[in-house]
Amino acid sequence: MPKYRFYATLLDRFQTYLDTQAEDYFYQDEEGKWHKNYSETEDTLHFSQEEVDALLKQELLDAINRVSHEPSEAASKGTAFNEVIDCLIHNRNSENGSVKICKTEFYGVNAIKSICDGFEFLFDIPFCKSVAEYFKGSLSQVFTSATIDTKFGEVELYGYIDELRENKVYDLKTTSRYEFGKYAKYWQRHAYPYTLIESGMCTEINSFEFTAYALKGGTSRTPLITGVQYPEVYQYNHEQSKVLLKEICERFCEFLEDNRSLITNKKIFNEEE
């Protein structure tokens, strides 16, 4: 029986906690606006490295404890877009209870309206159809789970794969700006193929693709949302990923044990609430 249970994106949060330097940190003010911690014009830091470390630790603990936050428009847009694409791929209605989707008309132009977390988005139909065509024939939102042995005990890794086709895993990302290598340190590219193979769902996975879409539009001047695709592909090596996953899981287990008194979500320890 697993001693710990981690979903893949939680490992990304932990990686951010380990890696982020004070000059690269972004913080949100009381009005919800984001600012870079380092001011180039003044050559000063808003928060010191010690303060940034403390903030990142609290953000990680909040993620572990599943503390609810006000939804962000960017995250809601990504969720809405992903569900729109899945509906088009499989010619179905929305199966995500938090996302409502319907066709609409905007100044004589047909569009797809999607409402998520109180935010309303208008997606360009030709753009969405081209994205759906790219993933044609894939399985969507595939749950996968498998265990890995560590010196702290057995860890269960789990998560939902956006798209799976033949021997390739896809994770759909939305962003306002893209630079190549943006997702290089994301653990999904190791965890999802690993769990597919270890669980017996697949015998072989050759590659993992972060299919990023730099979205534009969604403003009062240009309401229709379109985007540009940026595929970021990584070859998958099972034995190599197994070693890397073991290492990051052991570091995360150590963090959890050191901070056990601050963790209220006991499911991460595979314990009932």
Please tell me about this protein's structure.
The protein has 273 residues and is of the alpha+beta class. Helix content is 32%, strand content 33%. It has helices at 8-19, 49-64, 73-90, 125-134, 188-198, 238-258, and strands spanning 4-7, 26-28, 34-36, 38-39, 44-45, 99-106, 109-116, 119-124, 139-150, 153-165, 168-175, 207-216, 224-235. Strands 1, 6, 7, 8, 9, 10, 11, 12 and 13 form a 9-stranded mixed β-sheet that branches. Strands 2-3 form a two-stranded antiparallel ribbon. The chain has a two-stranded antiparallel ribbon with strand order 4-5. Helix 1 runs antiparallel to helix 2 (49-64), helix 3 (73-90) crosses helix 4 (125-134) and helix 5 crosses helix 6. It starts with a strand and ends in a 15-residue tail after the last helix.
Biggest pleated sheet: 9 strands, mixed
In terms of structural class, how would the helical and strand content be classed?
alpha+beta
Could you give the count of β-strands?
Answer: 13
Number of contiguous helices: 6
Strand content: 25-35%
Order of helices and strands: EHEEEEHHEEEHEEEHEEH
Radius of gyration over C-alpha positions, nearest whole angstrom: 20 Å
C-alpha geometry: globular
Mean pLDDT, all residues: 92
Helix content: 25-40%
User: Distance N terminus to C terminus?
Assistant: 17 Å
Query: Which residues sit in consecutive blocks of at least 5 with pLDDT less than 50?
Result: none
Instruction: Specify the oligomeric state.
Output: single chain
Domains (count):
2
Layout of helices and strands:
Elements: E1 4-7, H1 8-19, E2 26-28, E3 34-36, E4 38-39, E5 44-45, H2 49-64, H3 73-90, E6 99-106, E7 109-116, E8 119-124, H4 125-134, E9 139-150, E10 153-165, E11 168-175, H5 188-198, E12 207-216, E13 224-235, H6 238-258
Parallel strand pairs: 1-10, 8-13, 11-12
Antiparallel strand pairs: 2-3, 4-5, 6-7, 7-8, 9-10, 10-11, 12-13
Helix pairs in contact: 1-2, 3-4, 5-6
